[in-house]
């Protein structure tokens, strides 16, 4: 487990060097809960965004129902359906919601996916052990962009 | 843009548990729904976790011949009469028939005068093993321990949970309440987020219950053994990507008292069956 985490941290450092314009989790600027500019300057990958909705650190459908992903089993009911979400919110607002939903919805249950500080008893992933060392956000900057790009496809009008 | 947390969470209390009623062996009536105890601020009605399970899972608990948890309880029945330790005693040497334990499960955790602290059933069992029998303590969440807790629970089935929250227990209860509402881990989720705001809702493939502990220990079809309260707490805290607390330690003991008190009025149900 430790190796995996360290490996990820090293990758993150390399990525930061390669694309200097990546906005660090602590540097994101929220305006009324929205984040106006891309976290990476690289367009989001819609397909990877769809994958993250289901698997890994995103697992958005644990709490949200998404008709476009009805091929996948077990959509949760904790949050609102994301059908037509791009009609309700702008790209900047969706980026803000995914990066840190608590900036848009005070006290929301939705986890903050691009945040590295302020946790209580932070664990080492799902081991139940204490976390040590550098904290990685749940989603990388590019993964946030990928998810936002996918959400932008959820239009009904 | 002025969305409040309540907008997202309001769905919770409207998705109901089912209407089924539980009678075990055709004779032990189990209260699975009743008015919430006065101290609960945000919940009107409390429900046993049994009401949130599928008909198939529910059925397994309705007859002791079908309940696989009873295999472990039978083993504990033998342990009850087995002499262990340097003092040459068994549980039966001092407590006679296990039926003398009727009512005990319902009031634990409780403040124990002699110990000067709130103790769980597990603590009391190990207390007797170490201090009165001269035997090795059980590991807190071990199979032997959870089976013994299962046996002691069984003889209280149908009696109302009634843990004391005031007097000398109050400060521990308040500590437990604080833990219940703290949002732990990288997912920043509290017990209340899932079991108070969202019971009745699906979270991925799981139908969220109120997270009551009147049914413990629970035989889970998932891991085919009896599971203790603190092991379940540990699993739920771990799932928030948090550093968990230690089973048997002061935090989970306080949390157990608080969670038990949220179920005051439901029947003791353990060993129950869950998925």
From TrEMBL, chain A:
<dbReference type="GO" id="GO:0020037">
    <property type="term" value="F:heme binding"/>
</dbReference>
<dbReference type="Pfam" id="PF00034">
    <property type="entry name" value="Cytochrom_C"/>
</dbReference>
<dbReference type="InterPro" id="IPR009056">
    <property type="entry name" value="Cyt_c-like_dom"/>
</dbReference>
<feature type="domain" description="Cytochrome c">
    <location>
        <begin position="44"/>
        <end position="155"/>
    </location>
</feature>
<keyword id="KW-0479">Metal-binding</keyword>
<keyword id="KW-0349">Heme</keyword>
<dbReference type="InterPro" id="IPR036909">
    <property type="entry name" value="Cyt_c-like_dom_sf"/>
</dbReference>
<dbReference type="GO" id="GO:0009055">
    <property type="term" value="F:electron transfer activity"/>
</dbReference>
<dbReference type="InterPro" id="IPR030999">
    <property type="entry name" value="Thiosulf_SoxX"/>
</dbReference>
<feature type="signal peptide">
    <location>
        <begin position="1"/>
        <end position="19"/>
    </location>
</feature>
<protein>
    <submittedName>
        <fullName>Sulfur oxidation c-type cytochrome SoxX</fullName>
    </submittedName>
</protein>
<dbReference type="GO" id="GO:0046872">
    <property type="term" value="F:metal ion binding"/>
</dbReference>
<keyword id="KW-0408">Iron</keyword>
<keyword id="KW-0732">Signal</keyword>
Automatic annotation (TrEMBL), chain B:
<keyword id="KW-0808">Transferase</keyword>
<feature type="binding site" description="axial binding residue">
    <location>
        <position position="195"/>
    </location>
    <ligand>
        <name>heme c 2</name>
    </ligand>
</feature>
<feature type="binding site">
    <location>
        <position position="232"/>
    </location>
    <ligand>
        <name>substrate</name>
    </ligand>
</feature>
<dbReference type="InterPro" id="IPR009056">
    <property type="entry name" value="Cyt_c-like_dom"/>
</dbReference>
<feature type="binding site" description="axial binding residue">
    <location>
        <position position="236"/>
    </location>
    <ligand>
        <name>heme c 2</name>
    </ligand>
</feature>
<feature type="domain" description="Cytochrome c">
    <location>
        <begin position="76"/>
        <end position="161"/>
    </location>
</feature>
<feature type="binding site" description="covalent">
    <location>
        <position position="194"/>
    </location>
    <ligand>
        <name>heme c 2</name>
    </ligand>
</feature>
<dbReference type="InterPro" id="IPR025710">
    <property type="entry name" value="SoxA"/>
</dbReference>
<comment type="subunit">
    <text>Heterodimer of SoxA and SoxX.</text>
</comment>
<feature type="binding site" description="covalent">
    <location>
        <position position="191"/>
    </location>
    <ligand>
        <name>heme c 2</name>
    </ligand>
</feature>
<dbReference type="GO" id="GO:0046982">
    <property type="term" value="F:protein heterodimerization activity"/>
</dbReference>
<dbReference type="InterPro" id="IPR036909">
    <property type="entry name" value="Cyt_c-like_dom_sf"/>
</dbReference>
<keyword id="KW-0349">Heme</keyword>
<protein>
    <recommendedName>
        <fullName>SoxAX cytochrome complex subunit A</fullName>
        <ecNumber>2.8.5.2</ecNumber>
    </recommendedName>
</protein>
<keyword id="KW-0408">Iron</keyword>
<keyword id="KW-0732">Signal</keyword>
<dbReference type="Pfam" id="PF21342">
    <property type="entry name" value="SoxA-TsdA_cyt-c"/>
</dbReference>
<dbReference type="GO" id="GO:0016669">
    <property type="term" value="F:oxidoreductase activity, acting on a sulfur group of donors, cytochrome as acceptor"/>
</dbReference>
<feature type="binding site" description="axial binding residue">
    <location>
        <position position="128"/>
    </location>
    <ligand>
        <name>heme c 1</name>
    </ligand>
</feature>
<dbReference type="GO" id="GO:0046872">
    <property type="term" value="F:metal ion binding"/>
</dbReference>
<comment type="similarity">
    <text>Belongs to the SoxA family.</text>
</comment>
<dbReference type="GO" id="GO:0019417">
    <property type="term" value="P:sulfur oxidation"/>
</dbReference>
């Amino acid at each position: 487990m430790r190796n995996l985490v360290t490996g990820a941290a090293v990758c993150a450092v390399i990525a930061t060097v390669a694309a200097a314009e990546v906005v660090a989790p602590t540097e994101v600027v929220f305006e009324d809960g929205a984040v106006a500019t891309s976290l990476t300057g690289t367009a989001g990958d819609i397909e990877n965004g769809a994958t993250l909705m289901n698997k890994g650190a995103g697992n958005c459908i644990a709490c949200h129902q998404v008709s476009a992903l009805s091929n996948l089993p077990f959509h949760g009911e904790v949050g609102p359906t994301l059908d037509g979400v791009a009609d309700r919110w702008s790209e900047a607002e969706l980026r803000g919601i995914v990066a840190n939903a608590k900036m848009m919805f005070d006290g929301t249950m939705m986890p903050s996916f691009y945040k590295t500080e302020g946790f209580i008893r932070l664990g080492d992933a799902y081991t139940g052990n204490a976390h040590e060392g550098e904290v990685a956000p749940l989603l990388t900057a590019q993964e946030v962009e990928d998810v936002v790009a996918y959400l932008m496809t959820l239009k009904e009008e | 843009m002025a969305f409040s947390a309540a907008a997202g969470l309001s769905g919770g209390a409207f998705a109901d548990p089912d209407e089924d009623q539980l009678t075990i062996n055709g004779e032990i009536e189990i209260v699975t729904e009743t008015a919430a105890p006065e101290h609960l601020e945000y919940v009107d009605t409390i429900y046993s976790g049994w009401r949130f399970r599928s008909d198939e899972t529910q059925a397994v608990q309705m007859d002791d011949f079908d309940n696989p948890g009873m295999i472990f309880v039978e083993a504990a029945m033998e342990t009850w009469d087995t002499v262990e330790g340097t003092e040459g005693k068994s549980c039966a040497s001092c407590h006679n028939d296990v039926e003398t334990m009727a009512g005990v499960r319902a009031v634990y955790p409780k403040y124990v005068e002699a110990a000067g602290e709130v103790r769980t059933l597990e603590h009391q069992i190990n207390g007797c093993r170490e201090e009165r029998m001269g035997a090795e303590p059980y590991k807190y969440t071990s199979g032997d321990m959870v089976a013994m807790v299962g046996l002691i629970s069984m003889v209280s089935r149908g009696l109302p949970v009634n843990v004391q929250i005031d007097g000398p227990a109050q400060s521990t209860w308040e500590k437990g309440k604080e833990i219940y509402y703290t949002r732990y881990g990288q997912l920043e989720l509290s017990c209340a987020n899932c079991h108070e705001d969202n019971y009745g809702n699906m979270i991925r493939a799981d139908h969220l219950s109120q997270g009551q502990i009147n049914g413990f220990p629970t035989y889970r079809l998932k891991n085919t053994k009896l599971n203790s309260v603190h092991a379940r707490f540990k699993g739920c805290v771990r799932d928030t990507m948090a550093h968990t607390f230690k089973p048997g330690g002061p935090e989970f003991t306080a949390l157990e008292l608080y969670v038990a008190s949220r179920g005051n009025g439901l029947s003791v149900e353990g060993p129950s069956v869950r998925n």
